[in-house]
Amino acid sequence: MKKRVVLGISGASGAALALDCMRHLARIGVAVDLVTTRMARHTCDLELGPTATAELERLADVIHDGTNMGATVASGSYPVAGMIVAPCSMRSLAAIANGLDDTLLTRAAGVQLKERRPLVLLAREAPLTLAHLRNMTTVTEMGGIILPPVPAFYLKPDSVAAITTQIAARAVDMLRLERPLADAWQG
């Protein structure tokens, strides 16, 4: 049976991270349930353009209406290998940390935590407030993984695309679906 992952996209800046995660997941043959917030589509169109946004949706196996709290990904009985939220806004982080489950994205993330499945949040904000740090700590204590989209400068990336591709590969690697995709430090 084909492995399945939930990819959540919040309205935070960093839409290229979502597209690169989707491309990596498609490349390794993982089925993707796409869940977006109200502002995510706007941010994707603004940062990537309509063609890339269309590619993102085309690569998804299932696209869920972000307001449909009855979607399959809102239930722990729906078998997935984990979830990535790329990018993850501080609003979504706060909702996940506090168990609000008030959107399909935050509900699907909460399901991953309660089912003890991997949840990887590419938290996008700088600088961070104490509230942000506490929410990150709370999610980490519940078993989630906070993966700020920080470049691996030691790899000497030559473009923004190289940076986002590497960060997305690290996010996918955190799900432990197969051999690592991200370039590794060679010493």
Automatic annotation (TrEMBL):
Keyword entries, A-Z: Flavoprotein, FMN, Prenyltransferase, Transferase
Sites where the protein binds dimethylallyl phosphate? 154, 170
The Enzyme Commission number assigned here is 2.5.1.129
Q: Does the keyword Flavoprotein apply?
A: yes
Residue positions annotated to bind FMN are 11-13, 37, 89-92, 124
Q: Which reaction does it catalyse?
A: dimethylallyl phosphate + FMNH2 = prenylated FMNH2 + phosphate
GO MF, one example: flavin prenyltransferase activity
Which positions fall inside the Flavoprotein domain? 3-171
Q: InterPro entries, per this entry?
A: Flavin_trans-like, Flavoprotein, UbiX-like
By its UniProt entry, which NCBIfam families does this protein fall under? PRK06029.1, ubiX_pad
Q: What family does this chain come from, according to its entry?
A: Belongs to the UbiX/PAD1 family.
Function, as annotated: Flavin prenyltransferase that catalyzes the synthesis of the prenylated FMN cofactor (prenyl-FMN) for 4-hydroxy-3-polyprenylbenzoic acid decarboxylase UbiD. The prenyltransferase is metal-independent and links a dimethylallyl moiety from dimethylallyl monophosphate (DMAP) to the flavin N5 and C6 atoms of FMN.
Name of the molecule in the record: Flavin prenyltransferase UbiX
